Amino acid sequence: MNVSKTGLIALLLVALANLAIWAWMGRPVAAPDFSGEVRGVSFSPYQRDHDPIAGRNPSPAEIDGDLRMLRGVTDSVRTYSALDGLDLVPYLARPYGLRVTLGAWIDTRLDRNEEEIRHVIAAARNNHNVDRVLVGNEALLRGDVTAAQLVAYMHKVKAEVKVPVSTAEPWHVWLAHPELAREADFIAIHVLPYWEGVSVDHGVDFVMDRYRQVQAAFPGKHVVLTEVGWPSDGRTRKDAEASIANEAQFLRGFLNAADEYGLDYYVMEAFDQPWKIELEGAVGAYWGIFDSDREMKFPLTGPIAPMSDWPWLGALAALLGLVPAVFILRRTATLRPAGHSFLPIVLQVSAAALVFAAHAGLARYMSTGSAVTFIVGYLALAFVFFILLAEAVEFAEAFWRTRLARRFPVVSPQVMDHLPKVSIHLPACNEPPDMVIETLAALSRLEYPDFEVLVVDNNTTDPALWQPVQAFCNRLGPRFRFFHLDHCDGFKAGALNFALRQTDPKAAVIGVIDSDYVVDPAWLKNLVPYFASEQVGFVQAPQDYRDANDGIFKGACYSEYAGFFHIGMVERNERNAIIEHGTMTLVRRAALERLGGWAEWCICEDAELGLRLLEAGCESVYVTHSFGRGLMPDNFAAYKSQRFRWAYGAVQIAKHHWRALFSRKHSALTSGQRFHFLAGWLPWAADGINVIFTISAVIWSIGLAVSPRHFEFPPSIAVAAALGLFLFKFAKTISLYAVRVPGSIRQHWLAALAGLSLSYAVGRAVLTGIFTANRPFLRTPKCEGRPVLIAALAAAWQEGLLMIGLWVAAAGIAATYGADTLDLRLWIAFLLIQSLPLAAAVSTSALSVMPAGRAKLAPALATTLSDLPAMARTLAPALVPPQTVSPRT
After folding, report:
1. Do residues 281 and 388 both lie within one domain?
2. Checking DSSP bridges between strand 507-512 and strand 585-588, what pairing results, if any?
């Protein structure tokens, strides 16, 4: 199919808009020109592969090369240490006419401090271009030494050298320790507006104000700005944003002000220092005028281009968004113009975000740990956008489709010359006999000429459960046959395969029904005629339920189930990709036997068989009319257990059929069928990854609070993408329910709550399914009543603990860092939104104990309160969500 004219226009317009946004991001930024010489720069000659902490220090030749580069840029450099070869800086700087303010590093290592003092004294005495000495750099700020110790070190140096001696500390440390000023020959202050959270527009004024404040506090003392600068990358602090444009704007403004007022200063710093990431976080690496490859990051005159390569990046993003858009729009010809515009927008936004994230990440300095973090984060970001695209396609097709190509209405039996015999198989295990008898009574009223019913009760040990059913079958006559198996392997599939072996040889169609379903008398006569086409492998009617009015919980479950059958199955049917269910399904017997029967290795044997039939080239039929109604799970534990089984079974199926799903050589699946199966499982896979991310987010937040220098906030674009995906999925659910699912707005919101509550259970199932292969079949209990309140909450105890952990993490981050920058607000929002599915689980579990009528609520609460002592005694075992496990069903 070709792309429509509307789609083509939308593609081009969205691609142009993408380019325009890149052009806007890369637009030149105006800044005041500076044409003079920089008075002084902080000088650390460590290159990209150096790390003084690990003992990888620059060679004399590398130091000499750096000093040669600075000739003409400045006439003075400031160092921080006199060990590891840095005592050679004055000697190597002499040929280039560079003066040196020589530093001695002071910390908690007292022996090394003495060694620093000896080397700095020797270097100062032997090199006439050393004009000042700094004993210690922020040693008081770090708490490495006391003021008295620092003064003693200064005295020792002053006694041996003829140049002025001081120590370097932030401006506020000097104000807090005036005793330092009395002993220092000059006041050496650090003023870094970025660390104070000052915006770049007020940065120069901030520096001048602090300079004057210190000057006024110590009249008669010369004040030197030994560190002043702005980083080109890193985390935003309050109003201070780290970027190349801001670094250029600040430095140009400061240099002009410094010339005007005759300030003595050292710009922080000459070269970027990647090794500082381990000490100060990512921002520590980006204070240089030159990057670590010794390229000047920006000119000191003319416009600043913050993203000079934007044309290439924009073109790449537009192209990455165009190619899949053409592919998708060619296969969505039935969309309205709005849909043809919506999908290219999603693709262009996703492509732009991926390109931007790659560019920003690869342009950064990375340690091994940060490189691994970047790769994992980028793969996660790509996965988020892949899920977003799949969700967007489903949304567009459900919201803007002009027509349905495959609609299967209820048909009359007259369309078929001969109605084939149908064998209905009803497996049961530990089921309430009254419920099963009600199902059998409804089957006895089927308006169909030739059918049989085979009841296979398996692995039920209590005769009181199966014998009444057997007696009722006997009363219904020869069409109803009852089998009791003390032991049956292979889960539900084993019982169905047993029934298949007992089936009347004349039966051409196999029907499967759950033991709680009350069928419509017209079920067979209105659906069996579809088998007149030899291509039809199975016919599916929706699962439906008759207890939706039995409380808020069941009403929410009912609406949540309905979404799949009114939206998902309808859209899948368009590409012959429906999911076969274990009830209300009819299968061509010949196809079933040809494929080897039901898969006993899989706990979702119904969906697995449906996929095998499609792989064999069979057609499926989905009729939206409801022909039978069953019972929903009675409580949240059973509801969660059922979804765990479905998700675990999906992983089993994906692992077993991956060749067929990814290769045309191994099956007759079409690209549309592959898309629906893979895209349908993607949200469940995302839930699995989300469990890992949720736990990691709590751990990472603890790291951010406890060790902020070693933990960086995740990239804002990745956090924003995750938040955007959640909000999009939620908005999609609500909007599609509004147009496709019968019910009130309240019911739609309850459905969203119920669906959200299963996210953690689905995620656990996916992770369990990846690493295991033979979890037992989890039977969904019916007619077992509601649990007491505490037991209901205990069913969601894992979700509750994680929810509290996320809330505490969000509060801890807010208390430690505040919430005044974008990355902080995004991370706090991420933690809180991550808690919503967990809070939904706790809420839904609590709803499962609420009575159907308001009049019953007070007695129920009274009963719960009176039972508190007994419940307290049994709370520990109740903390494990109740799951009825059977080897068969």
Report:
1. no
2. antiparallel
Please give the biggest Cα pair distance in the chain: 117
Query: Considering the entire predicted model, what is its pTM?
Result: 0.83
What confidence category does residue 767 fall into, taking pLDDT thresholds of 50, 70 and 90?
Answer: very high
User: Measured between alpha carbons, how far is 104 from 157 in angstroms, rounded to an integer?
Assistant: 10
Q: How far is CA 91 from the centre of its chain?
A: 54
**Predicted local confidence at residue 883, as pLDDT:** 39
Query: 141 near 170, Cβ under 8 Å?
Result: yes
111 C-beta neighbours (distance < 10 Å), count: 7
Residue 529 and residue 537: Cα distance in Å, rounded?
12
Question: 153, exposed or middle or buried, with CB in 10 Å at 0-12, 13-18, 19+?
Answer: buried
One domain for residues 205 and 315:
no
Which tokens sit at 611?
Answer: 């996929």
At 483, the amino acid letter reads F
The CA distance from 379 to 385, in Å, is: 10
Where are any strands of DSSP class E within 36-186? 41-42, 76-78, 99-104, 130-137, 165-170
Question: Tokens 């281009």, residue?
Answer: 305
**Which span out of 138-142, 358-362, 866-870 was modeled with the highest average pLDDT?**
138-142
SS (H, E, C) 493-553: HHHHHHHHHHCCCCEEEEEECCCCCEECCCHHHHHHHHHHCCCEEEEECCCCECCCCCCHH
Percent of the chain with pLDDT over 70: 93
Q: Is residue 87 within 8 Å of residue 124, measured between CB atoms?
A: no
Does an H or E element contain 246, and which? helix 244-261
Q: Which domain holds residue 845?
A: 684-734+743-855
**Crossing angle of the two packed helices 368-400 and 671-706, in degrees rounded to 10:** 140
Q: What are phi and psi of 365, to 5 degrees?
A: -80, 135
Pick from 75, 83, 138, 69: which is nearest to 101 by CA?
Answer: 75
**Both 707 and 795 in a single domain?**
yes
130 and 263 part of one domain: yes
Query: Is the per-residue pLDDT at 878 higher than 70?
Result: no
Beta bridge partners of 457: 428, 484
Please tell me whether the peptide bond between 269 and the residue prior to it is cis, using omega within 30 degrees of 0.
yes
Measured CA to CA, the distance from residue 383 to residue 390 in angstroms comes to 11
Please report the pLDDT score of residue 851 as a whole number. Answer: 66
Question: What is the three-class DSSP state of 858?
Answer: helix
pLDDT digits (tens, 9 = 90+) for 493-550: 999 999 999 999 999 999 999 999 999 999 999 999 999 999 999 999 999 999 999 9
Q: Are strands 165-170 and 187-190 parallel, antiparallel or unpaired?
A: parallel
Instruction: DSSP letter for 290, please.
Output: B
Q: Is residue 167 part of a domain?
A: yes
Determine the pLDDT at residue 667.
Answer: 85
The DSSP 8-state label assigned to residue 91 in this structure reads H
Integer Cα distance of 500 and 589 in angstroms: 9
Q: Is residue 165 within 8 Å of 157, Cβ to Cβ?
A: yes
463 shares its domain with 496: yes
Q: Please, are residues 883 and 776 in contact by the beta-carbon 8 Å criterion?
A: no
* Residue 315 C-beta-side C-alpha neighbours within 13 Å: 3
In a domain, 321, yes or no: yes
Give the per-residue pLDDT at 337. Answer: 86
Residue with the bigger pLDDT between 786 and 141: it is: 141
Q: Are residues 693 and 814 in the same domain?
A: yes
Domain count, the chain: 4
Please spell the DSSP secondary structure of 567-635, one letter per residue.
IIHHHHHTTT-PPP-SSSEEEEHHHHHHTTSS-TT-S-HHHHHHHHHHHTT-EEEE--S--EEB---SS
| Rounded-to-integer distance, Cα 80 and Cα 276, Å | 14
340, containing H or E segment:
helix 337-362
With a CB cutoff of 8 Å and minimum separation 6, the contacts of 675 are: 575, 577
